[in-house]
Amino acid sequence: MKEMNRTDLPRIAASSYLNTAPLIWSFIQGTQREKVELLTDTAPARCAAMLERGEVDAALVPVIEYQRMMDVLIVPGVCVGSRTAVRSVVLVTRRNNLKKVERVALDNSSRTSVALLKIIFREFLAFEPEWKSASPDLKSMLAEADAALIIGDPAMKVPRDQFHVFDLATMWREFTGFGFVFAMWMARRDALEKARSIDFAGARDEGLSNLDAIAKETESELGLTKEEIKSYLTENISFGMSEDMEQGLRLYYELAHKHKLIDSIKDPDFIGS
Asked: Among 44, 46, 105, 130, which residue is least crowded by beta carbons within 10 Å?
């Protein structure tokens, strides 16, 4: 866990994957770096837990958690999603057909993607393998299962020439015709004043205007070229919520409820709406 500047500023949390970099760059190095206290973690699920416990005022949260948490609202317009292939949320297997998959190891740092994968199997493939929660290490996951759900930066490093790699956003698009939303900024209802003081959309726009800097800072760590990083952040990830993606989000919630992955459904409640 990294912490910055313990102050009375609004406290926010986000995962430190590449796909969040444009959303948080402004808070780290840009014009909003002194306006919030930012905490980063490698697991989106832990960011949700921090928000639920009241340790932060707002967080970039897996969208499934909106249905599981009380008294939170969604920041409108800003998200981590994908209209086509996402590249960083994948099911990896040596089997050439998903119908042959019998046991799946699930990345325990994920929540939205775990529910999405279960929906894909139950709703669209019409069968269900055995599930096993696991730490996100591909080698150990495939030692205990014949497929592995991997998210974030590790998913981008999976050697595509050695495995069959199924992109979950691509599968969702093929089955539903919609884009998919993986995470959104959410704020506690008792911290709305602080959340409203943060320009999340402006931070996103500043981050997207500094992709060269982001690529330069992350290329050595990720083992990707600057061009690959910029391509991923512009062609695979969508940081704005379109009508198509909002429809996909609502369908996702409906199917999650149908398949008993959430107990009930509440409509998305956006700050300011």
From this structure: 130
Look at residue 2 and tell me whether its pLDDT is greater than 70: no
Shared domain for 191 and 219, answered yes or no, is yes
Closest CA to 108 of 69, 55, 139, 152: 152
Q: In the predicted model, is pLDDT for residue 220 greater than 90? A: no
Secondary structure letter of residue 266 according to DSSP: -
Name the residue range of residue 249's domain. 2-83+181-258
pTM of the entire predicted model: 0.93
Adjacency order of strands within the sheet including 130-134: 130-134, 103-107, 147-151, 89-93, 164-167
CA 25, chain centre distance (Å): 17
Per the domain annotation, does 77 fall within a domain?
A: yes
**Residue 146 CB burial class (10 angstroms; 0-12, 13-18, ≥19):** middle
Looking at the structure, tell me whether residues 190 and 250 fall in a common domain: yes
Q: What pLDDT, in 10s, does the model give residues 235-251? A: 999 999 999 999 999 99
Whether residues 73 and 193 fall in one domain = yes
**Hey, what's the torsion of the CAs at 191, 81, 178, 94, to 10 degrees?**
-130
CATH code of the domain covering residue 197 = 3.40.190.10
- DSSP class of residue 235 equals I
β pairing state of 72-82 and 180-188: antiparallel
Number of domains in the chain: 2
Cβ contact 111:89 at 8 Å: no
